[in-house]
Write a structure and sequence with these properties.
Elements lengths: L12 H6 L1 E5 L13 H4 L4 H10 L7 H10 L4 E7 L26 H10 L3 E7 L20 H5 L6 H17 L6 E5 L13 H4 L1 H11 L4 E2 L22 E2 L2 E2 L3 E5 L16 H13 L3 E6 L9 H17 L19 E6 L4 E6 L6 E4 L6 E6 L8 E2 L1 H5 E2 L2 E2 L9 E4 L11 E6 L5
Parallel strand pairs: 1-2, 1-9, 2-3, 3-4, 4-5, 8-9
Antiparallel strand pairs: 6-7, 10-11, 11-18, 12-17, 13-18, 14-17, 15-16
Helix pairs in contact: 4-5, 4-11, 7-9
Bound molecules: alpha-D-glucopyranose.
Length: 437
């Protein structure tokens, strides 16, 4: 049988079906354009960083274009940074002046985004930073931009972190009451203690109380694991797990978050952009292990997705148009089924179809262990062209006689054309016989 995580408080039923979402990291850091952590990396004080606040003017911002790009790529939900560690808020919050309406943008940027994505049929998620390098009561920790500034840290005794925590709770309430039903709440993150500074985690955030507030306002919302009280989903970051993520031996709902390049915020000069091929494989690999993929775009300071991101999203969309059947509603293959070398299986338990993704196209045939009695029909997914199932004898008898090779009774052989079909990753759809699993 297929693995099935235990139910949690939030509603993950749509999530484990939809599998593919867009992460959006957008804030003032789009202007320096050299990583969303720039303030901390370069130890900038608030006054220096404020230049980005004064110049934030995304005149080309068109959330409909963003939503269309995500929908065309086959994404079914999005998660946007309402506030990142810099503390800047995209919406018209009443709890701070450090918000989009007070920049040259002059307006709430979040509401039109939420509306545009909903119009395209995508679910809505909010990433919200627990760290805050702008709030006056946020004390220094090892990640803080001012960690090496003695004058700043000397003031910590006068900072009341509880005020910040209240602010965090107040803003959560705004986010869960002013934007309709929210599908995902993605808190980030808890800071470890260092020799110099205490850490911040479940006690400092008052995670338990915060979660009670969240559940009282939107009981169904999916909450992630970074409040130090794990809820509905685990979120490995820039890392592809080797198998279904398990905690204490139990499979859990999980979502890999990945960047196109090495930065979450727009980074002009970062060059490690992943190829289309790698990205599609990443999506397949994730679903083959029962997970979701949240793929990130960092829009520019003018409010656009840059060409490198758009080009890849388009490519993913072309693949998804003909292959989304192997992604939506799919999960890890049942128990004893092992994919051949350079392949990944995904499985749709409803339709009982198994999808064989070939990361590398072999010559002539592919051998599937344990499948001899299970497959009723096989076809390429991109064009529904038949893939013949050949009997072992045929496979091994040619003009030059019988080739002897160790054979298992359980082996199924599929005959492949020499040339792979066009798509990035070819997929073979296997229709299973009733009761195969
Ligand atoms: C991190 C980083 C960050 C990014 C995030 C996404 O913890 O601090 O910049 O937003 O994770 O997973």
């Amino acid at each position: 049988m297929t693995l099935q995580p235990r139910p949690t408080a939030g509603d993950t039923s749509w999530f484990t079906h939809d599998r593919f979402g867009l992460f959006v990291h957008w804030g003032l850091y789009a202007l320096p354009a050299r990583h969303e952590w720039v303030q901390s990396f370069e130890k900038m004080d608030a006054q220096t960083y404020n230049r980005y606040f004064r110049h934030f003017d995304p005149d080309l911002y068109d959330p409909h274009a963003w939503a269309a790009a995500a929908a065309d790529a086959g994404m079914k939900y999005f998660v946007v940074t309402t506030k990142h560690h810099e503390g800047f808020c995209l919406w018209d919050t009443k709890y701070t002046d450090f918000k989009a309406p007070n920049t040259p943008a002059g307006r709430d940027l979040l509401t039109p985004m939420v509306e545009a994505f909903r119009e395209q049929g995508l679910r809505v998620g909010f990433y919200h930073s627990l760290l805050d390098w702008h709030h006056p009561d946020y004390t220094t920790d090892e990640r803080h931009p001012m960690r090496d500034n003695a004058a700043f840290t000397a003031e910590d005794s006068r900072r009341d972190l509880q005020n910040y925590t209240q602010y965090l709770h107040n803003q959560t309430e705004e986010l869960l009451t002013q934007f309709g039903p929210i599908d995902i709440l993605w808190y980030d993150f808890s800071v470890a203690a260092s020799d110099r500074y205490p850490g911040k985690g479940r006690d400092e955030w008052q995670s338990k109380k915060l979660l009670e507030l969240v559940r009282s306002l939107q009981p169904q919302v999916i909450v992630n694991d970074r409040l130090q009280i794990p809820q509905d989903v685990r979120t490995p970051e820039q890392y592809q797990p080797r198998g279904w993520v398990k905690i204490n031996g139990e499979p859990v709902v999980w979502e890999a978050c990945q960047t196109f390049s090495g930065s979450w915020g727009y980074h002009r000069d970062e060059d490690s952009w992943k190829s289309l091929d790698m990205l599609v494989k990443m999506l397949i690999d994730t679903v083959s292990k029962g997970g979701n993929l949240l793929l990130n775009v960092g829009p520019t300071g003018r409010g656009e997705f840059d060409e490198r991101a758009l080009e890849r999203l388009k490519g993913i969309g072309v693949w998804m148009k003909r292959h989304s059947r192997s992604i939506y509603g799919c999960t890890q293959a049942p128990g004893d089924v092992r994919a051949p070398q350079d392949c990944r299986y995904t499985y749709n338990p409803q339709t009982q179809r198994l999808y064989l993704h070939l990361f590398s196209w072999p010559f002539g045939a592919i051998h599937l262990d344990g499948m001899a009695e299970r497959v009723e029909y096989a076809q390429l997914l991109n064009d529904a062209s038949e893939i013949p199932i050949v009997r072992q004898e045929v496979e091994y008898q040619g003009d030059h006689g019988f080739m002897s090779e160790a054979r298992s009774e359980d082996l199924l052989v599929l005959k492949l054309p020499t040339r792979p079909p066009d798509p990035t990753v070819p997929v073979i759809e296997l229709f299973l016989k009733e009761g195969s699993f």
